[in-house]
Amino acid sequence: MPELPEVECLTNAVRATALGWTVSDVRFLRQDLRAPIPTKRFKALFTGQKLSEISRRSKYMLWKVDGQGYGIFHLGMSGNFLMRPTGEVQMKHTHAVFTLSRPRRKDVYLHFVDPRRFGIIDCCTLTELEDHKYFRELGPEPLSCENLADHLFTRSRRRKQPIKAFLMDAKNVVGVGNIYASEALFRAGIRPLKAAGKVNTSAYERLAQAVDETLTAAIAAGGTTFRDFRNADGNPGYFALRLNVYDRAGAACGQCGEKIRQVKLAGRSTFYCRRCQA
Ligand SMILES: [Zn+2]
Fold this sequence. Notes:
Low-confidence stretches: 224-237
Order of helices and strands: HEHEEEEEEEEHHHHEE
Shape: elongated
Bound molecules: zinc ion
Strand content: 15-25%
Number of strands: 11
Distance between the termini: 29 Å
Radius of gyration: 20 Å
Mean pLDDT: 92
Helix content: 25-40%
């Protein structure tokens, strides 16, 4: 499933291609993915308009048109954008084709492909975004939050929920998926099962730093993968991060040699080192 780093890299790739270009045509090949696609409204908002900003919020990609609104995209389990020199559908599971035009340049086509159809294509006006159902309950961005450690510490007081589940809840902070939560907790030396309310200030400081480092490393690894996203195969997958604990049950901890343990926590596989994480 594409996580924050994958969405960040794909957003950067789409921005490099599409920013400042005019959406001259929008074609939908179906009316729904995980949710219905507001096809008419999308076309009305975007057709003939110039893309003025392409950004990411949580795991959503946003296309902005000044004075009009936002296109909202979620990749679900298997969504991707492919850049093609033709608007002809070449891949199975292509659900939308966006034609981008610019004076004296050849048209470029962005194909939205999603085999499992858990993705989302939506839109809203500029003023609707803040209170939109997908965004209104989201916590801060882990890479741009001014003081993530303070925020997490304050929010977690008296919480008995395990720190890993707390960290993965987008209401507390967005974009820390299962792999990244396991890895960040290892780096910070915090056991995943520890109650979030029992984690102290200095541990939250280590954790905020670890989340930043883990996500930044994943984005750096993915930057190369997505440099030319014409070659992408329709499934961004996970980037080749060097993992310390995730999916390494029974293997020796790289720090102390102890066997990595695996437990199920809130239905998710969780990996940790008993000696390095207190
Ligand atoms: Zn260890």
